[in-house]
Write a structure and sequence with these properties.
single chain; about 325 residues; alpha/beta; 11 helices; globular
Length: about 325
């Protein structure tokens, strides 16, 4: 089988290599999954650069999100069947043809969802749920607070705008260009700010760095800044965050932390909500293209292309 492997930190386009490997028979409690589609997310590529090297062990196979079908069952596995489609979560490793995963980390996929939709039902929707819940927890209740969403024209940005409004907040779409603002205005009727934002009650931030610092300075006292990504490649200024510690709550949301601490029933409920949102057309993501794993270099090049119009999927 083929797999993508990282043996040294660096530029993803330089250090992710394709290798051949033997398929491994599942042990007790494990399943072998043939990956049908795997997503490419920023959260897959950031660890490759070494940004989280203190908790990233080399070598590793990237890919946190995707869908596959069960190809073999280990001893003692129940509740799953050969050929059943599942979402294997809990660790990276989906950028390969076959994957071993404990059965307890596999979640069934409804028959009416395509492979493409199912492959994007995890990272963005469940992260969006947790971000909105974090805002609700901070304020006690939603009452029209103005909540800025950075990278609002992205797939998860669009989800957050919908979910915040449904929860009773007033979402403010923060984008970096007039082109993004125009594109977003086709689907979002709320406030869109293409550059500096007016004072906000909270920010859900995927960017970090200096853009994040500028927004952090503008949050009203009693507000919250919740960071869940660092597309800029940098974190917020620690001194700035410390200077407003008493007036603005700062936190970094890791979906992984929730997934590894939540009861299985809570994760199943989150997936059911994600599947329903995809069916309703509010939690789906546009697809720019599907690449065979053997064409991974082209997929990574397209990921960096400013002309990309949606998510990229791999077909191992």
């Amino acid at each position: 089988m083929f797999r993508a492997v990282v043996r040294a930190f660096g530029d993803p386009r330089q250090v992710i290599r394709l290798e051949e490997a033997e398929r491994i028979v599942p042990g007790p409690g494990e399943v072998q999954i043939r990956i049908r589609r795997a997503a490419i997310n920023p959260s897959d590529l950031i660890p490759v650069t070494g940004a989280y090297r203190s908790r990233t062990v080399l070598p590793f196979v990237p890919g946190f999100e995707g869908v596959g079908e069960i190809a073999a069952l280990g001893e003692g596995v129940s509740g799953l069947s050969l050929g059943q489609r599942v979402l294997p979560i809990g660790a990276s490793g989906l950028w390969q043809s076959f994957l071993l995963r404990p059965a307890g980390w596999c979640f069934a996929v409804p028959d009416d969802l395509s492979d493409e939709a199912a492959a994007m039902a995890y990272v963005n929707p469940l992260t969006a749920f947790r971000l909105v819940e974090a805002a609700r927890t901070h304020f006690g209740a939603a009452g029209g607070q103005r909540v800025g969403v950075t990278a609002a024209a992205s797939a998860i940005g669009g989800m957050l705008l919908v979910l915040l409004a449904e929860a009773g907040f007033r979402p403010v779409a923060l984008v970096r260009s007039a082109a993004s603002a125009a594109r977003l205005a086709e689907t979002f009727a709320g406030e869109i700010v293409p550059h500096a934002a007016p004072p906000l009650d909270a920010v859900l931030d995927a960017v970090g760095g200096e853009p994040g610092n500028a927004l952090f300075r503008q949050i009203r006292d009693g507000g919250a800044f919740i960071q869940y990504g660092a597309l800029s490649g940098a974190q917020l200024d620690a001194a700035l965050v410390a200077s407003r510690r008493e007036t603005v709550a700062f936190s970094f949301l890791w979906l992984r932390n929730w997934v590894h601490s939540a009861p299985r029933a809570a994760i199943e409920a989150a997936f059911a909500r994600s599947f329903a949102g995809i069916r309703a057309g509010v939690l789906g993501s546009a697809i720019d293209g599907v690449f065979p794993l053997s064409d991974l270099p082209a997929a990574l090049a397209r990921q960096d292309d400013p002309a990309r119009t949606g998510k990229l999927l791999l077909a191992p």
